Amino acid sequence: MSKPMIYADNAATTKLDPEAFESMKPWLLEEYGNASQPYSFARKPKKALAEARATIAACINALPEEIFFTSGGTESDNWAIKGSAFSDSEHRATITSAFEHHAILRSCAAIERLGYPVAYLSPTPDGQITPENLASVITDKTRLVSIMFANNEIGSIQPIKELCKVAHAHGALFHTDAVQAVGHLEIDVKDLGIDMLSASAHKFNGPKGIGFLYIRKGVAISSYADGGAQEGNRRAGTENIASIVGMATALKGNCNLIEHNRTNILKLEKQLLQGLNESGVEYIRNGGSNTLPGLISISFPNMDGEAILHRLDLQGIVVSTGAACDSVNTIISHVLQSINLPEEAAIGTIRISIGKYNSLTDIDAIIASINKERVQ
Ligand code: PLP
Description:
The strands form 4 sheets. This protein has a 7-stranded mixed β-sheet with strand order 2-8-7-6-5-3-4, sandwiched between helices. Strands 9-10-15-12 form a 4-stranded antiparallel β-sheet, with helices on one face. A two-stranded parallel ribbon has the order 1-11. The radius of gyration is 21 Å and the shape is globular. The protein is α/β, with parallel strands linked by helices. Helices cover 41% and strands 15% of the residues. It starts with 5 loop residues before the first strand and ends with a helix. Residues 72-74, 77, 101, 103, 148, 152, 177, 179-180, 200, 211 line the site of pyridoxal-5'-phosphate (PLP).
């Protein structure tokens, strides 16, 4: 019998919660009406849509009308960056960071090609974008600042409230790619001062291919898709009710248990690091001291992260890496490059991301496998 899989790549995607799955079914099989239609068969999906919007809004302290459903994090990021630029006839600048997800970086490259200026802030070696760094670059000609809530490779959590203050002091809007943070950290968009926030359901035990963009009331950005009147005329297309309902169920479930999940996940994280320390293996933990619970980026100097990944894979353990080699080159991720991790450490980097479905037994198996890989 093959060994059960140990899934420790929760920053890549998460397992769908059974409750979320159950909540989706009726909207696929029975109540499949189009929410935009005027007849009574559309009433239930329309109500479900409104309820899901309200549930999601409550999880981040937004208003329901500030939640816009999208196909996920990538679309939300594209919309925030391009929508902001395209609605600005003065072509004012966008500021982002060098270690954003490619959904942000490539959207920024796209607006640059069209003549909208973009500046890229470098993180500290601990993976922080500091308010001082932002203050040194921002001007009154900045339209948008977009800094991720927490980095997806090294987990470092950013000082969002302080960064928002700097942006607002110069009349700029503040967007955050919170794809890794929503459902895992408490987020109050009003208290933090966020103008736009991207989220993706499959990172918080919801279904894939669905997400949302929070757009604070009064923020003027251009529409994402033209067509029907869905999403307040800003993102046309028949709503994916089942996925939207599944996302709301998953987010509510996670938000109700944030503290409980964090405590458990941090226990597992401690166990993992203790196990590595006891084994005497040399490693560097990336991302500084304020990281997402369970997201552990570790570099083993002079080891090969890709080889570790494949060996763990053979033992049924799923993790991720920070550098990939082809037959000629080693490509170190832009995130590890941005924190100036020396090449010999970057090559030996793996990302273990623990989720709420992991157990102490999983952690022990991961430690044992890393040790086995080391002595081979
Ligand atoms: N932003 C961050 C920080 C991510 O980690 C990801 C997914 O890996 C995305 C955006 C893209 O989200 P999606 O997969 O929903 O398009």
